Amino acid sequence: MLRSTLIAAALLALTSGAAFAQAERDSLAAPVLRANVTVSSDVVRIGDVVENAGTAAQIAIFRAPDLGTTGSLPTQQLLTVLRAHEVIGVQTRDLREVSVTRSSRTLVSKEIEHQIARVLERRNGLGDAANISVTFERDLRELQLDSAHTGDMRATTVRFDPRNGRFDITFEIANDVTYSPTKLRFTGTAVETVEAAVLTRAVERNDILKSSDVVIERRPKAEVGNDVANRDRSVGMQARKQMRAGQALKVADLGKPDLVARDQGVTLIYETPGIYLTGRGKAIDSGTEGDVVNVVNLQSKRTVQGVVTGPGQVSIIVPTPRLTTTAALSSEPPAAPAPESRKAE
């Protein structure tokens, strides 16, 4: 029994001695300077810049840099301040300065624009948020908030005037540390936009638009209306009027390109079951595919009507005779172009 008691006492002494030695080593650990520091508050404390600072760790010694920025503390200046607070024997590891960064939450302008567009979506005649363009009253690139403001942007006051597109919106962002949220107020204008085909150069009437003549831009819907043309429906089309560079195209401004021009020589085609005749003519009208134009038959000198069926090609319209009287049955066949070729089917 006595022997067991002595063994237990010895083990307890060894354990206590090891714990005391570890505590002594911890208390005697030399303070070490940190090379890079990130702080979240508006002050820099000794514990931020010095490892193993002990009871002095919570002492504030410098103001922190501005939100989202980085500053530097010269080592000699820092050691002087530390000695004033009885923190001595700091191992500098040959550092010349300590870099201090103030953490923050960054709100870029695009994120703010997106939030405003979401708030105004389908309000007072506006459409989807994706089509709302926001312009701030004052130039805004980004905002830096304390990193404790982790909440979502919540709109608390919304004012929008559809007559001039002006908005006045206040957001609140919750703070993880305090009960007081941050309030952010933004003013500016918001307009609904649509994608529009825009001319890169001035065009004349009847010009055919090439791919290089048209680009896509977002334009205010109120400016271009609902008749706006897209790029796919613009390239290869013919301008129906003179237009300037930078002008947004409307569907009414464009048409299919003319396959037959006025005063152009054309091929006349006369076709009925079993007969296919061609001749030469001169167009009196311009027209695109499917248009009815007047054409002079150059051999008979008669004016006939035909349908534009291809480039420089017109199919003669043959009126169907009325089979109501004997006279109608014995009437002469309608005029056709003088034959140049004939093929029986």
- Structural shape: elongated
Give the low-confidence spans.
1-27, 325-333, 341-345
Mean residue pLDDT: 85
Rg over alpha carbons = 43 Å
Biggest sheet details: 5 strands, antiparallel
**Would you tell me the structural class of the helices and strands?**
alpha+beta
The tally of domains stands at: 4
- Tell me the span between the first and last alpha carbons: 131 Å
Output the helix-strand order: HEEEHEEEHEEHEEEEEEHEEEEEEEH
Protein name: Flagellar basal body P-ring formation protein FlgA
GO cellular component, one term: periplasmic space
Subcellular location: Periplasm
Region (Disordered): 325-345
Sum this structure up briefly.
By secondary structure, the protein is an alpha+beta fold. Helices cover 18% and strands 35% of the residues.
Describe this structure in words.
- Helix content is about 20%, strand content about 35%.
- It is an alpha+beta fold and about 350 residues long.
- The protein folds into 4 domains: about 30-100, eubacterium ventriosum atcc fold (Sandwich), CATH 2.60.480; about 105-195, no CATH class; about 200-220 and about 225-250, no CATH class; about 265-330, SH3 type barrels (Roll), CATH 2.30.30.
- Strands 9, 11, 12, 13 and 14 form a 5-stranded antiparallel beta sheet that branches. Strands 17-18-19-20-21 form a 5-stranded mixed barrel. Strands 2-7-6 form a 3-stranded mixed beta sheet.
- It is elongated.
- The model is unreliable at about 1-25, about 325-335 and about 340-345 (pLDDT under 50).
